[in-house]
Design brief:
The structure is a single chain. With 133 residues, this protein is mainly beta. It has one domain. It has one helix and nine strands. The strands form two sheets. The chain has a five-stranded antiparallel beta sheet with strand order 3-2-4-5-8.
Amino acid sequence: MKRLLFALFALCALTTFAFAADKNSVLIHPGETVYARFEVKGKKIRLVQAGKEKDDAAQVIFTFDKQAKEGMRSLKVENKFPNDLIYKAEMRSLTLKHERRVNPTPVVGGKIAIDPYPIVVEQLAFFDFKAEP
């Protein structure tokens, strides 16, 4: 019953916002791993490429679980930068044509962060990346 109520809440909470920019975004779907490579200029970083092919030079690796546990899927973000990674995120239900901006967990330099997302989320978009000391 709790899972059903949570899923219903998540569906109602999704609204039709479109914030993420296409070419400066990392998109991921359940069951995917995306490797992101950035250009670093001082304290600023800029997304250069993101892809599903294994990339040992990628500074950030996003992995979105396919299997749900208790109505949620986990997103793992591995930050290979020495600085903390801060970014914005948008969860999307493509079937329902809804989007909602969310506040992801900042990722400490050289560490991994894990964020839960409802199973109704079919796509995540990440953008506006910053590396902070």
